[in-house]
Amino acid sequence: MFARIVWLVLRKDFTVEVRSLEIAYTTVFFAISCVLVFAFALVQEGRAPEGGAAGILWVAIAFAGTLALGRTFERERQSDTLRALLLAPAARPAIYVGKLLGIVALLLAAELLLVPLVAFLFQAPLLVRPGWLATVLLTGTIGFAAVGTLFAAMLVRARSRDVLLPVLLYPITVPVIIAGVRGTAALLQPEFDPGIIHFWLALLVCFDVVFVTLALWTFEPLMTD
Q1: Would you say 103 and 68 are in contact if contact means Cβ atoms under 8 Å apart?
Q2: Residue 23: is its pLDDT beyond 80?
Q3: Which residues of 49-64 are buried (b: 16+ CB within 10 A; e: fewer)?
Q4: What is the dihedral sign for C-alpha 7, 10, 11, 12?
Q5: Cα–Cα distance between 59 and 181 in angstroms, integer?
Q6: How far apart (Å, rounded) are the C-alpha atoms in residues 189 and 191?
Q7: N or C, fewer C-beta in 10 Å, the chain?
């Protein structure tokens, strides 16, 4: 039953987004614009700053993720569908997981465009080790989205939600972003050291487990209040 509710919530979000593509277009456009601004500011005479690609990639992911979270739950507020979901005879943690998976899927789709763009503009070998990079991006995205989904749902009725979301989100997700940046930067080094990657991946997995567990535990009381 839990998995079925997760699938229904995810399918509902996917169907609505496929029909409009509003959030997908906005998120991708904003992320690409962010990367282009950094490229025009930092790339001088065709030479990109050494070691900046990892940080710029994760800054674009964080900013685009914040925009996607705000727009997703703004749609729920306007249609009043979140209230309907909460009134439905369904486990609220399952509703949270369905919303989380939708956000993660949206961010991963944006990252499919961001990675080659950053690699091209900043002359970074991001695609040399695609398996490791995909693992780092996936674990980091889950940690970021786990906190963001909880806060975005909690602030859906607040008037100043657009201001409060980044204020609450960034201080808590900074460790995830730092670990993602360091893990991605380690993949760009000429001498590949699996031990360093394993360390940052283990740290990201720990963050994912802690954030998802706490969100599942607190989602129902927070939404009830």
Answers
A1: yes
A2: yes
A3: eeebbbbbbbbbbbbb
A4: positive
A5: 9
A6: 5
A7: C
Helix (H/G/I), strand (E/B), else coil: 190: coil
pLDDT band at 79 (very low <50, low <70, confident <90, very high): low
- List Cβ neighbours of 135 (8 Å cut-off, separation of 6 or more): 201
Could you report the per-residue pLDDT of 142-165, keeping only the tens digit for each?
Answer: 999 999 998 888 887 777 777 888
β-pair partners for 44: 47
pLDDT in tens, 175-191: 999 999 999 999 888 88
Q: d(Cα 58, Cα 122) in Å, to the nearest integer?
A: 14
- Provide the pLDDT confidence category of residue 50 given band limits of 50, 70 and 90: confident
120 contacts: CB under 8 Å, gap ≥ 6: none
According to DSSP H, which parts of the chain are helical? 2-20, 22-42, 53-79, 81-87, 92-121, 130-154, 161-187, 194-224
- Nearest Cα neighbor of 198 from 142, 132, 143 is 132
* Coil vs helix vs strand at 49: coil
CA distance to 67, 94, 95, 119, per residue, from 86 (Å): 23, 11, 8, 42
* Total domain count, the chain: 1
Calpha distance 124→130 (Å, rounded): 13
Q: Which domain holds residue 71?
A: 2-224
Distance CA 58, CA 151 (A): 20
